[in-house]
Amino acid sequence: MKLLLPALLAPILMAIPAQAKVFRNAYIAFEMPETWKCNLEVTEWVCRAEQGKESKEAIIILTAKEVGPSDSFPLYENHLNQTIPLKLKTGATAESKIAYKAKTVTINDQPWIDGLHLGSEVPNYFTRYLATIKDKIAILVTLSAHKNYYTRYSQEFYKTVMSLKVVATKNLAGRPDLGPIRPGDGGMLGPGSVAGAMPGDLLEGDGLEGSGGAGGKAPFVILALVLAAAGGYMFLKKRKKG
């Protein structure tokens, strides 16, 4: 078992490209692919490939707000453990699928609530949610990729997630020039969280359906195997150290 899990993870971890650049704003810093760029859209940062089909395959969106009554780790976890309604361009409403239950993870000494849904922000896209609170600032990072490409971008996303560092200062809420951050009213998650920052070319129709390999249930199966292997390996590694 101990030999099998590292063997499953090895191709994934070895495939992570060495080339990466660091994005940093007033509250967060992380590594992202060299060909990606981040642009500020009002109060959200939108990061993705600059051109071509890759710009539709995956995207990272960041937002931050002053902590309000709707911001707490238990509330974040509860929200992500429920299906999320998504209004379609037809006017109908669809419910997301929970890929894995939300849980607390620690990244670079900072606790985060971590959850993964399919079809919560854009149809046919997996979105991984990472939400945290530090001092008086609440931060949300979403990493989305089309279901046919999620296994490819899971390598990039793994590196991004493991490099997340909260750099917000205690006086950030009182310094709008360092932001921008949203006011404390409203929740970090839920309607209006990042959907308003999603680029129109993704919302109007991804154009990726039926391309890029496995579709349907296959990404769920592959993703479940990867996550199970990663979780089991980390558990055994931690247990061995203990």
Examine the coordinates and then state which fold CATH places here, giving the name of the CATH topology: Protein Transport Mog1p, Chain A
> What is the assigned CATH homologous superfamily?
Mog1/PsbP, alpha/beta/alpha sandwich
As residue ranges, the low-confidence spans are: 1-18, 211-218, 231-240
CATH level 1 name: Alpha Beta
User: Structural class, please?
Assistant: alpha+beta
**How many alpha or pi helices?**
6
List how many beta strands DSSP finds.
Answer: 12
Numbering strands along the chain, what is their spatial order in the largest sheet?
Answer: 3-4-5-11-10-9-8
CATH architecture: 3-Layer(aba) Sandwich
Helical residue percent band: 25-40%
* Content of β-strand: 25-35%
Shape: globular
Q: Strand-and-helix sequence, N→C?
A: HEEEEHEHEEEEEEHEHH
End-to-end C-alpha gap = 18 Å
Radius of gyration, in angstroms, nearest whole number: 18 Å
- The number of distinct structural domains comes to 1
Describe the overall structure.
- With 242 residues, the protein is an alpha+beta fold.
- The protein has a single domain (19-213), classed as Mog1/PsbP, alpha/beta/alpha sandwich (Protein Transport Mog1p, Chain A, 3-Layer(aba) Sandwich).
- 26% of the residues lie in helices and 33% in strands.
- The chain has a seven-stranded antiparallel β-sheet, sandwiched between helices. Strands 1-2-12 form a three-stranded antiparallel β-sheet. A two-stranded antiparallel sheet has the order 6-7.
- A hairpin with a 2-residue loop joins strand 10 (125-134) and strand 11 (137-146).
- Helix 1 (4-14) crosses helix 6.
